[in-house]
């Protein structure tokens, strides 16, 4: 049985760890290649795109893939739709492994936006010193906000165009609550911008913002394909694969 995991997330690596070494199971993880030094999962790894849904379908057929698992980032929306189309074309069962989104709790001051562009429109009314944690892609949406100061945290260095008043912090989660508290105080942050990525690795910033009374601008997740079975944790996804092998 050949399993292809569309990965790049913590959950994808954990799933690969659960499946790797299973007798009679060949495992391939596919990474988009957007991070210079990604954390590699166990097993065989391919890096790069497929060339859209048709290219992915061709790869599935060529490599005799029996099961496809979409464990990509919640904001990697295009590949999820490509995976659904490719799986249908190649007649390969598809499972989506999607971590649950964050949920506000008492004391949170959350404001929602449907896109980076909408977030940029709302941002000036919420604060002046911005902790921007949406990654290095899409900074151009905020490049015109010359009156604001940005602390941008990302794994790799961002590319132009970027905000004129900006400090870059190259770092990779998981992050600690004490570290996030100190970061907000040290930089005088008065508004946090984040995507609703979910998961525990980057959630401490939300707690730190709540404690400090700082508003959080949360960018909603993009739509995902309908009718695809969903697992919310790697263990459930591994069980799904095991049942497919037994059937």
Number of helices: 7
* Residue fraction in strands: 15-25%
Instruction: Tell me the total number of β-strands.
Output: 12
What is the typical, i.e. mean, pLDDT? 94
Q: Which spans have pLDDT < 50 for at least 5 consecutive residues?
A: none
Shape: elongated
Run of helices and strands: EHEEHEHEEHEEEHEHEEH
Q: Biggest sheet: strands side by side, in what order? A: 3-2-1-4-5-12
Task: Please outline the major beta sheet.
Answer: 6 strands, parallel
Termini Cα gap: 12 Å
What fraction, in percent, of the residue positions are helical? 25-40%
Class by SSE composition: alpha/beta
Q: Indicate the radius of gyration in whole angstroms.
A: 19 Å
Give a quick set of tags describing it:
six-stranded parallel β-sheet
Can you tell me about this structure?
Helix 1 (10-19) packs parallel to helix 7, helix 2 (52-62) packs across helix 3 (77-90) and helix 5 (177-187) packs across helix 6. It is built from 7 helices and 12 strands. The chain has helices at 10-19, 52-62, 77-90, 116-122, 177-187, 204-212, 234-246; strands at 2-6, 26-31, 44-47, 67-70, 94-97, 110-113, 129-132, 149-154, 166-170, 191-195, 216-219, 230-231. It is α/β, with parallel strands linked by helices and 247 residues long. It has a 6-stranded parallel sheet, sandwiched between helices. It has a 6-stranded parallel sheet with strand order 6-11-10-7-8-9. It is elongated, with a radius of gyration of 19 Å.
């Amino acid at each position: 049985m050949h399993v292809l995991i569309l990965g790049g997330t913590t959950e994808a690596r954990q799933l690969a760890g659960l499946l790797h070494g299973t007798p009679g199971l060949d495992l391939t993880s596919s990474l988009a290649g957007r991070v210079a030094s990604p954390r590699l999962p166990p097993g065989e790894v391919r890096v790069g795109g497929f060339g859209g849904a048709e290219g992915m379908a061709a790869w599935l057929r060529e490599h005799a893939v029996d099961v496809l698992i979409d464990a990509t980032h919640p904001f990697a929306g295009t590949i999820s739709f490509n995976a659904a189309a490719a799986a249908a074309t190649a007649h390969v069962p598809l499972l989506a492994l999607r971590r649950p989104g964050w949920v506000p709790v008492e004391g949170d001051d959350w404001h929602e936006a449907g896109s980076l562009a909408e977030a940029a429109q709302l941002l000036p009314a919420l604060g002046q010193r911005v902790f921007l944690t949406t990654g290095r892609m899409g900074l151009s949406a905020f490049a015109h906000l010359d009156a604001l100061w940005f602390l941008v945290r990302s794994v790799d260095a961002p590319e132009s165009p970027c905000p004129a008043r900006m400090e870059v912090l190259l770092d990779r989660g998981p992050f600690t609550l004490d570290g996030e508290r100190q970061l907000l105080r040290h930089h005088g942050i008065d508004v946090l911008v984040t995507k609703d990525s979910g998961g525990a690795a980057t959630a401490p910033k939300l707690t730190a913002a709540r404690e400090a009374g700082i508003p959080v601008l949360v960018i909603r997740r993009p739509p995902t394909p309908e009718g695809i079975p969903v697992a919310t944790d790697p263990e459930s996804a591994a069980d799904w694969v095991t049942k497919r092998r037994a059937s």
